[in-house]
Records
---
Amino acid sequence: MQGKRILLGVTGGIAAYKSPDLVRRLRERGAEVQVVMTAAAREFVTPMTFQAVSGRPVRTELWDAAAEAAMGHIELARWAEVVLIAPASADFLARLATGQADDLLATLCLATEAPIAVAPAMNHIMWANAATRANVATLQQRGVQVLGPAEGDQACGEVGEGRMLEPLELVDRVATLLVGGGPLQGRRVLITAGPTRERIDPVRFISNRSSGKMGFAVAQAAREAGAEVVLVSGPVGLPTPPGVRRVDVESAEDMLTAVLREVEGTDIFISTAAVADYRPASAAAQKIKKTTDTMDLCMERTTDVLATVAARPDRPFVVGFAAETESVEQNARAKLLKKNLDLIAANEVRHDKAFECEENQLVVLWRNGRRDLGKASKLTLARALVAHIAESFAAAHKGAAQRGTALG
Ligand code: CTP
């Protein structure tokens, strides 16, 4: 974060007492921080506190002639490499969602081209309110990164979802919005994640057990490594990692269509999705009634997304996943060869090991080698996996360049 220019917007909420610490943490990592406060924020913390920790005068008013003469609000909007609003109150989210320009901070958000991240903090019922949900959905659609909130004890004495993320976590999340110079800088990575749903009738489907956590962690790690990341995801309940473009799909066929649309220009394809291998041969148009004791469902194979990408003449570097209940490495190696992959990450899924939990265990295999990444949190493993992929990709790329052949 050395030398990065962060505009920190502070809005009115009790969590504002944590924001001076956030400024210090950002500055510890080398960032320059310009604080802009709303009127409500000044009811909780004084501008003097932020001036002391940021080393810069705090901006509060749109109509402050002296401050405008020093750096006008449009210049300030251009200065920012990222805008972080922490805490972001329910009121500010509403004003941002409706494009208001009624104070300095809201105006800056309209006038900036920098990525905007918000760290909501409010009472859990306010967070759950339909109006707030709609505002957050609108902001996410426009590419605003919503960081948190976390669950836990609230200042109002209640417990629930609405706490601002802790300063150190916010610093990490903002760092991923500012990445530059990582091993995948300038590379485009396409990732599939989550399960797919294959319709039986309008109210029923067949799916696979997958939370999508591993794929989302891989997307975050690839972004941290500097890549442009596109994440094609089946139905999951996970937030999009900062800086990642997400395409939501439902069925295996939708996933194939989305991947084929996005694959051009892709350097690395990572297939973590638990794609359904079979789908009902025909989905019933109306709800199927239980008129018989038994029922046959005729299923047909879906297209293998991973193998389709690997078979392209202009194929990217291709990485598959294998979830196995037995003979893990042997089965994974067979898939590596059969689908013509560059790498495969294998994990054992016996005893519910990998599903819906935060930890995982991975072994990476390639034609003449293996590397055990051990057992760790999904994000730690994803970072190790992405580092390994980046090394292998660079080596393959160099080899292809020397032979004068194309790779991705
Ligand atoms: N995959 C895919 N499209 C499919 C099926 C699987 O892209 N229709 C990808 C998965 O994302 C994963 C890898 O292929 O990277 C898993 O291989 P696969 O042979 O499908 O594994 P299983 O379904 O477990 O196969 P099997 O039932 O034969 O063990």
---
Amino acid sequence: MPRKIIIDTDPGVDDTMAIYFALKSPELEVIGLTTIFGNVTTELATTNALRLLEIAGRTDIPVARGADDPVAVPFGGPVAFVHGEDGQGNVFLPPPTTQVIDQSAAQFIVEQIMSQPGQVTLVPVGPLTNIALALRLEPRIAQHVQEVVIMGGNALGPGNATPSAEANIHNDPEAADVVFGAPRKVTMVGLDVTHKVFMSDAHLAEYGRINNPLAQHIARIVPFYRDFFHERSQIDGIWVHDSSAVAYVIDPGLFKTEQWPVRVDANDSISRGKTWPAIGDTDRHNLEPWHNRPRVNVCVDVQGDKVVEMELARMRS
Ligand code: RIB
Ligand code: CA
């Protein structure tokens, strides 16, 4: 039986790659996309989610629109210099012909989890606002979700939005602190591992040679994103963020994990958005503010080459 997943997403070039990787993976059944601000506004994220499913011929998958702003403060604005003005590498796709469902992202998440207890995995690859709002709407989803596999955070290494914080968590630290405190299994696929999953220019060129609409769309949009990495980090390729969370759901054996309680700095400080694990023995876990927090399954290492091979193999299939 394929694992049912909802991808909560801010598409975004790497979000697009992750969505298409999931759609091409027989181990997964994508039962919905929920949208969120981050790389783009929520409005554009929603438009893009609909467009992406149309390109893939998967308009059977519902799209639910998410929150426009973080839970505590207004959204800081999109990052056009990373993903393009359109969030799709400035290819400016025509408007979608399909529409969102008549439920918010939080309502859709709650309904899906509560109607299929223990069977739905959430894969948030953007800020965690919708997941926190769903927990507020129905706290029992924390017991009934199968797992929450988050792309976000940095346990041991530096951030990317700021020297201390990763972009998804930095975009809504208050929401992230709620989600990392939810009792059910929460897995963090953060920069500690995504910076070890590298798609080189040679790998990226593969997409152009794969004859299906999904790979062809990625081939169109990825050069803009790749050029951002080249300028920012002087690498010839990209670090694979959102697809690494999908890879974890398919094959957690490719990752090494540690179980630590995690708090998020939601203060107005230089480490706002930093995920702080309580590393060490139980004494440390008992310290405030980690006291009584559930352990998060934190990815600390990964067989990066295998993740890249798996993603490309699925796109060829
Ligand atoms: O830090 C990487 C994350 O930020 C990814 O989800 C990317 O899409 C951006 O949202
Ligand atoms: Ca994303």
